[in-house]
UniProtKB/TrEMBL annotation:
Domain of life: Bacteria
Source organism (scientific name): Martelella endophytica
Domain Enoyl reductase (ER): 19-325
Molecular function as annotated in GO: oxidoreductase activity
Pfam families: ADH_N, ADH_zinc_N
Keywords from the named record: NADP
SMART domains referenced in this protein's UniProt entry, alphabetically: PKS_ER
Name under which the protein is recorded: Zinc-binding dehydrogenase
SUPFAM superfamilies documented for this protein: GroES-like (SSF50129), NAD(P)-binding Rossmann-fold domains (SSF51735)
């Protein structure tokens, strides 16, 4: 099969190799998926740059956890009725060497749930890390119905889904966005109040818009960099669910201020989500896709052979929406 691999860490153009690799076989409890699409996420580019220093100890890596395709074969213990099923994948390259930047992937059956017919394979590739991370951030600490939820970076891949999950569940959603186009995207996704996080006084603008009412939950894209301002707008016993802190990788916490607010900090990563949270996210995603309730943003469709270009797009940080590799039209 054709696949992308890397054998050393480094820049995408230097280490990503497109070529032939032996097609995998579904092992016990696994399914073999003929992939139509694969999506690139920031964690994929970070792995390529040695965020897991021992990643290559077992040999080369086929990157990416997210993708979509059709089950072509099943391993021992998996019903043959799954053959022919349209699926999306998650956690394909977590704790395993071989991900979705290939024509085929073999992975645990549970990590290849059914992709409802209304959703395209391009949409299917967007669901693993972005939609499931957003779901966990919004729902891990209980219902948001009637609550006020702040989503920072609402036009980003995770933020865009977080706005929708919260709004669909009856929350009042506030989002931060830095330009008019991003503000429009947040508004269309369900945010009723938008503030510009590049303005130093955005916490004051948010509280003015809510008549002084503070938020109950925060879905946070830049935990360390935004913490000081977030603490100005979060209410007592509020929850900050964060999935990234890129600008400040080891933030300093104002412990007393946070303690007196009875704040809960929740760290979220799809890789480590408990199984019941994964099942909850998958079920809600499938229901929403069936009903056509979710919007999706696909910024780029790029051939598998140009995987390095897709990695550069993600690393540049300018793109809004998912960058998807096109693998097969069959």
């Amino acid at each position: 099969m054709k696949a992308i691999r890397f054998e050393t860490f480094g820049p995408a153009d230097e280490v990503l190799i497109y070529g032939d690799i032996e097609t995998p076989v579904a092992g016990p409890g696994e399914v073999l998926v003929k992939l139509h699409t694969s999506a690139v996420n920031p964690s994929d580019t970070k792995k390529r740059m040695a965020s897991f220093p021992d990643l290559l100890d077992g040999g080369y890596i086929i990157p990416h956890s997210d993708g979509a395709g059709v089950i072509e074969a099943v391993g021992k213990g998996i019903s043959e009725s799954r053959i022919g099923e349209r699926v999306f994948t998650f956690n394909a390259q977590y704790g395993r060497r071989f991900g979705t930047a290939a024509e085929y992937v073999a992975l645990p059956s549970a990590h290849a749930p059914c992709l409802p017919d209304p959703a395209s394979f391009e949409v299917g590739a967007c669901l693993g890390i972005p939609a499931m991370t957003a779901h966990r951030c919004v729902f891990a600490d209980g219902s948001v119905n009637g609550k006020t939820v702040l989503v920072t970076g609402g036009a980003g891949r995770v933020g865009f889904y977080a706005i929708q999950w919260a709004a669909l569940s009856g929350a009042r959603v506030i989002a931060t966005a830095s330009n008019d186009a991003d503000a429009d995207a947040c508004r269309n996704a369900g945010a009723s109040i938008i503030v510009n996080h590049r303005d130093a006084g955005w916490p004051e603008a948010l509280l003015a818009a809510t008549n002084g009412e503070k938020v109950d939950r925060v879905v946070e894209v830049e935990f360390g960099a935004n913490l000081e301002n977030v603490l100005k707008v979060i209410g007592t016993s509020g929850v900050i669910a964060t999935y990234s802190s890129t600008a400040e990788k080891e933030p300093k916490l104002p412990f007393l201020k946070m303690m007196y607010l009875d704040i809960t900090i929740r760290m979220v990563i799809v890789y480590a989500m408990p199984d019941d949270a994964k099942d909850h996210a998958v079920s809600d995603i499938q229901d929403a896709l069936e009903a056509g309730r979710l919007q999706h943003r696909i910024a780029r469709l790029i051939p598998l052979s140009d995987c390095a270009a897709a990695h550069r797009e993600i690393e540049a940080g300018e793109v809004r929406g998912s960058v998807v590799l096109k693998i097969s039209d069959d």
